[in-house]
Each structure stands twice: as structure tokens, then as C-alpha cells.
From TrEMBL:
The keyword Transmembrane is annotated on this UniProt entry: yes
Gene Ontology MF terms: transmembrane transporter activity
Cell compartments where the protein resides: Membrane
Positions of the Major facilitator superfamily (MFS) profile domain: 82-515
Transmembrane region(s): 159-184, 205-227, 233-254, 309-328, 348-368, 389-409, 415-439, 486-509
Biased composition, class Basic and acidic residues, residue ranges: 11-26
InterPro entries from the UniProt entry: MFS, MFS_dom, MFS_trans_sf
PROSITE patterns for this protein: MFS
Region (Disordered): 1-36, 531-550
GO annotation, cellular component aspect: plasma membrane
UniProt membrane topology term: Multi-pass membrane protein
Keywords attached to this entry: Membrane, Transmembrane, Transmembrane helix
Protein name: Major facilitator superfamily (MFS) profile domain-containing protein
Length: 550
């Protein structure tokens, strides 16, 4: 019988609280996987001495008995090949959200509708995307990452065809809604990172995938500028189909299944052929699909979003920051037309935002190393959650500063060169990346085994608020402030950004006290003491603070 050889990962498994994700699909009680760190944190581990579980006389093959068959033991080059394909997949899905704005003018002319009506196609995709990410997560736990991602990519790509060939605008709205709902997004792509890296070792991988998440919506306008300049609006959807088709092919051939329970099932079947009487965790589940469990999974992130102040305010901070990018998608056209930029040149100004993301990513890499060193030296001790916000305390102010600077350097060529607002846009992008990266990291440390559900609210807020922003951006920039409407609109956003940022510093200062007063945090602490050696997948519904059985 193959067994896992002694390793540093095995030694630290007994003392860390957020450990590898191995059998969370067994009872389907985990929250949606919006973040790989969160996924692993939501699966506390079996003790090393617990080697088997008997159900109806059948012995379950445990993760520790076939650890070398799981994604954690993939060679480093294979892990990063998989992660790079996932990077492209995430970019393609978010590309669909950003490139649409370049079709608005063509849709107005083709279907004789207003620009505001044409923007419904962008709004409906993003709002549906927010719900789609939550809906896909449980099925990736049940059936595996690979088939669910292939199905999601296939559906997203299929819905591009009727959009490109649409005889009326209603067809586009319906197909954009279905395309957004079909997008698995970070609920699956980020979850795959948790399948391949231990919780304490996956910081670099998480930072890399977060870059793809924020960067995809930015390259949309960059390429969309060329499409708008030289091609018809139909090509906005054909290019999405080409991009999505290429990433689906790459995923089909280069990405294997990574979900631990699926791999254990396969290993159990292989061993039974060789005469060993063992069964995989999903093979022992009765029933395999439980409607109540699925509803519980879907419900928990929304409950936490509404009832936990940390989740609510940090999610709103993250969501507002992401909404700014889509406001910029509209305001850049109004701003840079003052310098007589054409459609292609306006698209290229979004490179400034992409540069900001890359700079922030590079800044966070040393911080990832710092966090790993702290955990190695001090363990998961007091104020670990607050340590994860430390870098953000210095990066977050770039958001209101950038907005105010963008506002008053966008007055036209008589006052400033065109590069000035681009510089401030870069600062805003740095803050946006930092907010997304640090807030999900904070929730992981604050909510431990239930952090995937906590970060589900974060992802939902980002996509939902971005969708709403796509509708009010242009009216806001054209109807506020009279002659200086462009400047006052961004100034208002800068003031709001300042107010939304305040909870960040409160949580850093009073974080431990806030968690002590939280019903969920108190329940979590009791669970940690009671179930220190168990995976969260073994917690029964009546042990969960949120999402109990209806």
C-alpha cells in the first residue's frame, strides 16, 4: 500500500489551523471556493493517526495514504504550467467584462437604441457573473475542477455566437446574462491553487492568480480599442470567442484534474483492481448529491456578507475599488477625447492601469515572503490577521489620492499633458490590486475554516458593484458639476474612497476585539478547540454557525 513519506508538510499539519484541502467534498459542507487560501482554510485536517473511516463495512482510502498522488506532489514546473493556463482562463473570462464597452457605439447605430440601453449588456453580464461564481463552486467540489471548468468555458464560448449574430438587442442581453451566469470565475480557478499548494506555501501562487483576475478586465479595453477603430461591433464578440476557445483548448490538454477527492477516488479504484479493498470518499457518500447541502453552500456566503461586519465592510471596500475600474472604462473616453485621442489611442491609455497592477504584484511578492517567515517563526499566533493588512495600510491611500489627482489633471491639454491622468490611474490600479489581495488574505486569517464563505461575499461584491457601476458611470461624468463635470465626478469618487477606507484602519487597530465580539468568531474559536484535528468537511450541519440545515 502506497503511503506518504515523512515530509515537512506532514510535520506541520498537526500544528497549523488552515491546512490542505483533501476531502472537503465528502460532505459538501464547504463554502464556495472564491479564494484558494480560503478553500484550504475551510478544510481543517484529519490527525495523522486517523487512517481510515468505515462506512457499511467499506474502508475509506485516506489522503495521507495516497498523498503522493495528489496535486500537492506535482512537480513545481507542472504546477506552474497549470497555474499559467488558469491565469489565461481567468483573463479570458474577465476580458469578456471589459471589452464590451467598445461595442456600445456600434450597437447604438445598429439597433437604434440609446447608449444607456446599450450598456445593459455589460451590466447584466457582470451581475450574472457575481451569482455564477457562487453557483459553480459546489459542483467543482462534487464532480471535480476539470469537467466543471470545461463545461463553463464551453457555455461561455457558445453564448458569444448568438451575440455576434444577434438580429436584435434583446438577443444580446439574454445571451450576455447566460454567459455571465455560465462563468465559473475565481470560484474554481482560484480553488485549483488550493489543490496544489499547502496553505502556508501558496502566497506566490495566489498573488499570481489575483493578477489575472484584475488584469483581464483591463486588457479588454486595450484590445477593444483596436477592434473599435478598425472592425465592426460584431468582432467584439468574435474576439471573445477566439480568446475563450484558445484557453479552453489549452485547459483541455494541459490541465489535469486537481481536486483531491476525485484523485483519491481514482486511486481507490486502481487499488481495488490490484486486490486492495479500499474506497474513495465520494464513493462512500450516500446520497452523492444532497439538495440541502447544496443550498447550504450557496446560502452561507450571503449570510456572512450581511451579518459579519468584517466581511461586509472589507467586501464593500474591495467591491467599490473594483467598480472604479469599470467607471474608468466609461470616463477614459470622455477624458482623453479632450486630447483628440481616437478609439485605439483611448484603449491604449488602459495600459497605465495594467502597469499599476504589475507594480502592485511585484510589491506584494516580498510581503508574501514576509508572511511566510512570520508564520514559520511565530506560528499562526495573535494578530496574524492584522499582519496581513500591514502593507495595505500604505497602498490603500493611493486610491483616494489617485482619484483626486486624476480628477484635476483631466482638464485638457491647456492645463496638463495627457500622461498626468495616466500616472494617477496607475496609482488607483495599485490600490485596487492591493485591496483585493489583502482583504481576502485578512478574511482567511480572521475566519479560518470558514473563510471561503467569507471571501465569497468579497467576490460577489466586486462583480455586482462593478455591474451597477457600468450603468451610472457615463451619466455621472456628464451630468455632475457643470463646466467641470469630469473633475467633480472623480472628486466625489475620491471622497467616497476615503470614507470607505476608514474601516480598514479600524480593523487593523481593533481587529482582535472585533472578532471577539463576533458571534461567528466565537463559534469558530469553539470549533477550533473542539475539532482541532479534523477537517471542516467533517463538521455536521448543526455545528456550523451559518448555513445550518433548513
Amino acid at each position: 500500500m502506497a503511503s506518504r513519506p515523512p515530509s515537512p508538510s506532514a510535520e506541520k499539519a498537526e500544528k497549523k489551523t488552515d491546512l490542505k484541502d483533501g476531502d472537503s467534498g465528502r460532505h459538501a459542507l464547504n463554502g464556495p471556493e472564491t479564494n484558494p487560501v480560503a478553500v484550504q482554510a475551510e478544510n481543517a485536517s484529519h490527525g495523522e493517526g486517523h487512517k481510515e473511516l468505515r462506512t457499511n463495512g467499506k474502508r475509506e482510502l485516506m489522503e495521507d495514504e495516497c498523498y503522493d498522488k495528489l496535486g500537492f506532489c506535482f512537480p513545481w514546473y507542472r504546477k506552474w504550467t497549470i497555474l499559467t493556463v488558469i491565469f489565461a482562463v481567468q483573463m479570458s473570462m474577465n476580458f469578456n467584462t471589459g471589452v464590451y464597452s467598445n461595442a456600445v457605439t456600434g450597437l447604438v447605430e445598429e439597433f437604434n437604441i440609446s447608449e444607456q440601453a446599450a450598456r445593459v449588456g455589460q451590466m447584466i453580464f457582470l451581475v450574472a457573473y457575481a451569482f455564477g461564481c457562487e453557483l459553480w463552486a459546489p459542483w467543482s467540489e462534487e464532480f471535480g475542477r476539470w469537467p466543471i471548468m470545461q463545461l463553463s468555458l464551453f457555455l461561455v464560448n457558445i453564448w458569444q455566437i448568438p451575440c455576434a449574430l444577434a438580429p436584435n438587442f434583446g438577443t444580446i442581453v439574454v445571451c450576455r446574462f447566460l454567459g455571465g451566469l455560465s462563468s465559473a470565475g475565481g470560484s474554481v480557478t482560484l480553488g485549483m491553487t488550493a489543490d496544489m499548494w499547502e496553505a502556508d506555501d501558496q502566497g506566490y501562487a495566489v498573488a499570481y492568480v489575483v493578477l489575472s483576475s484584475v488584469g483581464g478586465s483591463t486588457i479588454g479595453p486595450v484590445f477593444g480599442g483596436f477592434i473599435g477603430q478598425y472592425l465592426s461591433w460584431h468582432w467584439v464578440f468574435w474576439v471573445q470567442l477566439i480568446f475563450g476557445g484558445v484557453t479552453q483548448i489549452l485547459h483541455f490538454f494541459l490541465v489535469p484534474e486537481t481536486r483531491a477527492t476525485i484523485l483519491i477516488d481514482r486511486e481507490a479504484k486502481r487499488r481495488r483492481k490490484n486486490g486492495e479493498d479500499v474506497w474513495g470518499p465520494d464513493e462512500l457518500k450516500t446520497p452523492r448529491l444532497d439538495a440541502k447541502d447544496v443550498l447550504r453552500i450557496w446560502r452561507r456566503p450571503f449570510e456572512m456578507f450581511l451579518r459579519e461586519p468584517i466581511v461586509l465592510f472589507l467586501s464593500l471596500l474591495s467591491g467599490f475599488s473594483d467598480a472604479l475600474i469599470f467607471i474608468f472604462t466609461e470616463s477614459f473616453t470622455l477624458v482623453f477625447e479632450q486630447w483628440n485621442f481616437n478609439t485605439m489611442e483611448i484603449g491604449l491609455t488602459f495600459v497605465a492601469i495594467l502597469i499599476g497592477y504589475i507594480i502592485a504584484y511585484l510589491i506584494f511578492l516580498p510581503d508574501v515572503r514576509r508572511q511566510m517567515k512570520i508564520r514559520k517563526t511565530h506560528g499562526n499566533g495573535a494578530r496574524l490577521a492584522e499582519r496581513r493588512l500591514l502593507l495595505l495600510l500604505f497602498i490603500a491611500p493611493l486610491e483616494p489620492i489617485g482619484l483626486l489627482g486624476f480628477a484635476w489633471t483631466s482638464m485638457g491639454p491647456a492645463y496638463t499633458p495627457w500622461i498626468a491622468p495616466c500616472i494617477f490611474a496607475t496609482m488607483i490600479a495599485m490600490a485596487n490590486y492591493g485591496i483585493y489581495m489583502a482583504t481576502i488574505d485578512y478574511m482567511v486569517a480572521a475566519y479560518g475554516p470558514y473563510s471561503a464563505s467569507a471571501t465569497g461575499g468579497n467576490g460577489f461584491a466586486r462583480d455586482f458593484l462593478a455591474g451597477i457601476a457600468s450603468m451610472y458611470a457615463t451619466p455621472m461624468y456628464t451630468n455632475i458639476g457643470g463646466e467641470r463635470h469630469l473633475q467633480w465626478a472623480s472628486t466625489i469618487l475620491g471622497c467616497i474612497a476615503f470614507l470607505v477606507m476608514i474601516p480598514l484602519y479600524v480593523f487593523y487597530w481593533k481587529g482582535p476585539e472585533i472578532r471577539r465580539r463576533s458571534k461567528f468568531a466565537q463559534t469558530l474559536e469553539a470549533d477550533r478547540q473542539l475539532h482541532a484535528g479534523r477537517r471542516a468537511s467533517q463538521l455536521r450541519p448543526n455545528e456550523e454557525p451559518y448555513g445550518a440545515s433548513p
